[in-house]
Structures are given as structure tokens and as C-alpha cells.
From TrEMBL, chain B:
Residues 1-19 form the signal peptide. Keywords: Heme, Iron, Metal-binding, Signal. Pfam families: Cytochrom_C. It comes from the Bacteria. This is Sulfur oxidation c-type cytochrome SoxX. SUPFAM superfamilies: Cytochrome c (SSF46626). InterPro entries: Cyt_c-like_dom (IPR009056), Cyt_c-like_dom_sf (IPR036909), Thiosulf_SoxX (IPR030999). Gene3D superfamilies: Cytochrome c-like domain. Residues 43-155 form the Cytochrome c domain. The keyword Signal applies. Coiled coil: none annotated. It comes from Roseibium porphyridii.
Amino acid sequence: VMMPGTAVSDPDDDSLTINGEISIVTEVEAPAHAENLSTIYSGWRFRSDETQAFQMDDFDNPGMIGVENAMVNWETVDGTEGKSCESCHGAPEDMAGVRAVYPKWNEDKGKVTTLEMEVNNCRETRMGAEKWKYTGGDMTDMVALISSVSRGMPVDVAIDGPAKATWEQGKELYYTRTGQLELSCANCHEDSYGMMIRADHLSQGQINGFPTYRLKNTKLNSVHARFKGCVRDTRAETYKPGSPEFVALELYVATRGNGLSVEGPSVRN
Amino acid sequence: MKHLIIGFTAMLTASTAFAEAVKPTDVVFVDGAVETSLSGVAGDPAVGAEIMNKGAGNCIACHQVSALSHLAFHGEIGPPLDGVADRWTVPELRGIVANAKVMFDGSLMPSFYRTEGFIRLGDAYTGEAHGGGEVQPLLTAQQVEDVVAFLVTLKEQ
């Protein structure tokens, strides 16, 4: 009876500075709660030099088109209250630091919320506007804008306090082997990162780079859309974007990346 | 005449049983190995080689196989399969392909001839729930035999 092999991790040695000024931490000691990892890496380190290059300058980063689109929405009045995001939040730059701490416990709602949930909450209850589709273009562009102003800041998502139960639920989901292929997130992104699975070089599945512009589908992709794709690939019934399960999973996965820099919008294949 | 009929029926039953596949739930494993053919029909190594590269087989997603080096992108999750027939007997290879988790506890390798015990079983790669009809194994009994017939050709000694 053979024993499973141990993971040979081989992210490359490149380092990332965006626009020659924002330096990005793509490798750092793993936080203690990521029990089975000693070092955490951004997904950027597992991509080819060509793909990496797209992210080094905003003029080459196709994800920045989404950021520009969101800038228009930011200042555009929508809904019955006659307000735009700008009316209350000022410049997008005033959101610096927000991406780094989400998902986060929301005292009013009594639950952990994601950036998408916060945006829709403002749209519906504060602007009197229609909510955006959770993984839709307007929403993902807006999350990209909010992320972009936090680039270079360390991900610092809280585990303790009232978020703890949700975090535990996310951890449970991370290690559950789903679908007919019976693979968990951990099987691919913890046990096998650095290895090839068919044509794909497996990363640690970190979400510090979200939203990610994927060369494969030529658009910005949200965290839950990516989760959905990965679960589907195990021949499983996925959870829905925005569902409590995916919110919990996002919280857990985000904390596995505590210490990496916020990188979104990033570029991946 | 009566004897003749009984004899004829017995023959029919025997040959039907022989050609009928062993159900996924009826496969008998002994130390991870499966002694008898699942389909009762000899496997075709050429068909097996194709299954290694496509559909629900796609073994090279995880394994390198030098004999299939004309195909692009071999994965690294499992060990290279070169010389695998020197390491394992036919019943062992059949057991590994049918349900590797019996041979290798907790293996990352999917169980290709199993239909029970899944969590959130989907409808293939749609992301939707499995409809509730009969669950089909990833590979049919004959496809398992075809893959095993191909693996048997992977000898180095």
C-alpha cells in the first residue's frame, strides 16, 4: 500500500510591484490558523511571466477597465433617494483599507457580510436603487474599484468574536470532499499546490487578488463565481453565489491569506 | 425433452450472467484488488488509452504516462504510471481503477466504479444537483477493463 506523496511547492521567485510604486507581498509566513501551511503565496506567483506582466502596470491590466466603469457608477445618482456612492462616501480613495478587512461581522445585520452585500445594502436601503446581481458586471467592477484603492495593504480579516462560528463553518466546507470526484478545496489548494493538474498550475487558491481578470473568459471574476467553478469541477452541486455557505467559505479562505497584500483587480489565466 | 429444456435454460442463465457487468455495489475487493473481470469481456488497450485522455477518465490530468507523451499536459498529482504493470497485478490494477480508496486510504484519486456515498453529488459538470435517477459510475465496467488492459502494457522490465 502506497502513501500519498507530499506536495512539492514551486511558485516562482518573481516579485511584484505595480506601476513601479505599489509593492505587493506575494509570499509571507502563514498565519497560525492556516494550520497545514508554512508559507502563503499569492496566486500571481504560480502564473507564467506573460500573465504576470499584465498586472505590473495598470495600462496593461485589462481589469482596470472594470475599475474605470465603476468610477462612472460611483458618481452616478441612482434610485429614489437621488444619491450616488459619492454623495456619502466621497472619493473612492476614501474606501482605502476596506477591502483588506472583508468579509467582516456586521453588527446591524447580525451576520458576516461581504463587500458585495454591503454594496447592495447601500443601493437598496440607502439609495432606493435596485440591487445588482451578486456576480454581475456592475457589482464585480465596483468591488474591483474598492479593492484597487487598498492595493498593497495587508489582508487582515478577523476570525474571532462573533465571526468565529461562520469561520468554523467555512473551514468545514474547505475540507469537505464534494461531488463524484470527491475533492475538497484543500485537496487541490493545500495538498497539491505547485503541481500541475492537467494544464493548470495549482496555486493555494488565495483570494487576495480578487476580483481577478481571467484571460480565459476575458472578464473580471468575483470570488463566489470562482468558488462555484471549482466546486462544479468536482462534479458536485454547487452553492449559490451570495449564499451563507459561500460567505462562510469566503471568510475562511480570506483569513488563510492574512498577511498577503490586497492585489485586486489581478490578472490570472 | 424436459431435461433438455432445463439444460438449455441453465446454459442461457450462465451465459447471460457471464456477459452481464458486475454492479458497482457488488464489486468484491480483497486487499484492494478485484479478482474477476467487471464486464466479462476482455479489455481493449487502444480504447483504454483514449479513456486515459478524455471524458470521465482523464487519468493524465493527474498522472504522467510516457507512452502517451504525444498528448499535451500530464498532471503531477499522482505518481507517473510508467512501469505500473511491474508494480501491480491485474486484479490490483482493476481494484485501483475501480475504487482507489480501498487500496490507498483517503486517496485523492477518484473512485471510477462507485455510485454511492457522495456529498452533494452533481449532475456531471453542470453544477446542478444530481437529478435523482440512477447514479452512473464515472467509467462503465467495460471502460474499467479497457483502462486496465492499457495499464497492463506499461512495463519497464
